[in-house]
């Protein structure tokens, strides 16, 4: 059975960030899902375009717009988890 190739690599999140960040995206995405922003997934403050949220850092040249949109939707779950966790600890 032939291997399915996705984009530039064998896995959509396997793009190395050696030149810019010194790691891979997988740990950053996993941390973002736990509500922790990092260098690749950042906390975008509330502004005229919408409320505060997690998003991919805009200066990542290897991400195509559809990949960026997919990651932004995925890490929105981490931002929601962050809000739930903050509410649970304030009571």
Describe this structure in a few short sentences.
The relative contact order is 0.15.
Task: Describe this structure as you would to a colleague.
With 91 residues, the chain is mostly helical. It has a domain of 39 residues. It is built from 2 helices and 2 strands, in the order αββα. The chain has a two-stranded antiparallel sheet with strand order 1-2. The protein is globular. The N and C termini lie far apart (54 Å).
Number of helices: 2
Helix content: 25-40%
Tell me what portion of residues adopts beta-strand conformation: 5-15%
First-last Cα distance: 54 Å
Please provide the ordered H/E string of secondary-structure elements.
Answer: HEEH
Biggest sheet, strands in spatial order? 1-2
Overall geometry? globular
Structural class label? mainly alpha
- Oligomeric state, counting identical vs distinct chains: single chain
| Radius of gyration, taken over Cα atoms and rounded to an integer in Å | 15 Å
The overall average pLDDT, rounded, is: 79
**Using DSSP, what is the number of strands?**
2
The main sheet comes to: 2 strands, antiparallel
Low-confidence blocks of residues: 1-22
